[in-house]
From TrEMBL:
Signal peptide: none
Database matches in Gene3D superfamilies: ESAT-6-like
Protein name as catalogued: ESAT-6-like protein
Family per similarity comment: Belongs to the WXG100 family.
A Pfam family annotated for this UniProt entry: WXG100
Length: 97
């Protein structure tokens, strides 16, 4: 038995927007933290700051990877929403609508 699709293109696009918004928020947070790091670097010197900065720089790459994943999911959901909408139009044409 084939499963049915019970999601609308609008629902998919709404979910896609959530992923894009999350990616945007993460990017904004990275910018804020980078700015804070630049500011604090003027006052915090020494090995402790270098250790902190090294750890942050390593983790920043992982966070950016998550942003790319969210953007990818956003695109996939939008693409699938368009596919679902097109299939619905084709089905309607099959019935002369």
């Amino acid at each position: 038995m084939v499963g049915s699709i019970a999601v609308t293109p609008e629902q998919l696009k709404s979910q896609a927007r959530v992923y894009q918004q999350a990616a945007t928020q993460i990017e904004e947070t990275i910018r804020k933290v980078n700015l804070m790091n630049q500011q604090i670097a003027q006052e915090w010197k020494g090995k402790a700051f270098q250790a902190y900065l090294s750890q942050y720089n390593q983790l920043e790459g992982n966070v950016k990877q998550m942003t790319r994943l969210f953007e990818s999911i956003h695109g996939q959901l939008n693409s699938y929403a368009n596919t679902v909408a097109e299939r619905d139009r084709q089905d309607a044409r099959s019935f002369g609508l």
